[in-house]
Amino acid sequence: MTTIAPRIDAVFDLNALIGDDEREWQLRARRFAQERILPVIEGDFEAAHFRREFVRELGGLGLLGMHLTGYGCAGAGAVSYGLVCLELEAADSGWRTFVSVQGSLAMSAIHKYGSEAQKQRWLPGMAAGELVGCFALTEPHGGSDPAGMTTTARRDGDSWVIDGAKRWIGLASEADVAVVWAKVDETDAGGGAVRGFLVPTSTPGFIATPIDGKLSMRASVQCDIALDGVRVSDEALLPGASGLSGPFSCLNEARYGIVWGAMGAARSCLEAALSRATSREVFGKPIGANQLIQAKLADMFVEVEKGILLALHLGRLKERGALTPAQISVGKLNSVREALTIAHEARSILAGDGITNAWPVMRHAANLESVRTYEGTDEIHQLILGRELTGLSAF
User: Fold this and answer.
1) CB-CB contact of 266 with 197 (8 Å)
2) Which partner for 264 in 86, 92, 163, 355 could form a disulfide, CB atoms 3.0-4.6 Å apart?
3) At what angle do helices 291-319 and 245-279 cross, to 10 degrees?
């Protein structure tokens, strides 16, 4: 099915809209996705296996924190990063998620808000894939209201003691460092009720437990975190982040990657449907010769191309420093919603075989349910846009 992607590319000619360097980043990620991820992903999904050895390979390709500058990071543009997300998620959402957690969440938090010593300690190893980071914001009672977090950090002499719990934290059991967000007393933190801490996961009292029973993102790892008297020095505090604007800015970095990535999953589903439509014969001809099938394929293709064009527009805005959170919400809401619709339509074209792992469609559909939920549910992004349109908050 990988031969279909160039055909889809050619119909719209996306290459005319991107530069040579951006295309090279895309092809680098596509080669890794096709040569390394695709041969093993169905087995890994079935076995709920995270392939840790891929982390260093991704680092070696320059894909970890690639949109950041310095400290071993590639300093690539926003569109290059988006194209990489698209290609990785075309293989599996779990691997785009890893790149997002590592680069857009954990590394971005350190890069944006860390001290020079923190950056030097963590970022080069994370960029190389030698170290893994996680981003601990969501809590067990719900992820859509971070202002209501119950995890706390209190001063004790020249240290901080962190207590609480986090849930659905990607890669926490694999991580070397966790960016933990906690409420602190205003007088302790010099202003700002929510602060970030860089917590080595070997610290006593930090326990990350992988969540079992997942029917989505099975080739990735999401965890519960228990924080029981976790003591860190004052040097663990991210000095530049005060209040919820810190974690929200990192979330917007990850949401931007999803805008592109979900279209990769959608393209993969379209490829599967197109391959099946041209190879399966019923009533003496390929099913793709029927008008109903062609109409479905055309509608799927239009939504893929519209989604990629929207992602490209947002990427150009981001490169100019003009991208707003509301615009990111448009992209995240549209890309994931349309990708799920495309996955469901592709499954119908594949008929009964579409529910088997001979095709990637059901895996993508299952993964996209997670993508639809994290970094802001549909409803959260609808409310963000509603507030932008009316000037009235419904939160």
Assistant:
1) no
2) 86
3) 150
The CA R_g of the chain, rounded to the nearest whole Å, is 21
- Beta carbons of 91 and 137 less than 8 angstroms apart: no
Name the one residue in this structure whose structure tokens are 């919603």. Answer: 337
| Tens of pLDDT, residues 361-379 | 999 999 999 999 999 999 9
Look at 78-82, 229-233, 243-247, 363-367 and tell me which has the smallest mean pLDDT: 243-247
- Count the neighbouring beta carbons within 10 Å of the beta carbon of residue 261: 31
Q: Read off the tokens for 216.
A: 């989505």
The tokens for 51 are 């392939």
Rounded Cα distance, 289 and 182, in Å: 58
* Long-range pairs of 113-116 with CB within 8 A, sequence gap ≥ 24: 113/196, 113/238, 113/239, 113/240, 113/241, 113/246, 114/198, 114/238, 114/239, 114/240, 115/235, 115/238, 115/239
Alpha helical stretches, state H, the chain: 4-12, 20-32, 38-47, 53-60, 78-91, 93-99, 108-113, 116-128, 186-189, 245-279, 291-319, 325-350, 361-373, 378-390
Answer whether 154's CB lies under 8 Å from 183's CB: no
* Residue 131 DSSP symbol: S
**Ramachandran category for residue 226: left, alpha or beta (phi over 0 → left; psi -120 to 50 → alpha):** beta
| pLDDT of 247 above 60 | yes
Domain 134-236, classified CATH 2.40.110.10, yes or no: yes
Q: Do the domains spanning 4-132 and 245-390 agree at the CATH topology level?
A: no
Judge whether 94 and 272 are in contact, CB under 8 Å.
no
Ranges of each domain in the chain: 4-132, 134-236, 245-390
Residue 349 pairs in a beta bridge with none
Decide yes or no: CATH 1.20.1260.10 for domain 245-390. no
264-282 confidence digits (pLDDT tens): 999 999 999 999 999 998 8
List residues with catalytic annotation: 375
Residue 6 has pLDDT above 80, yes or no: no
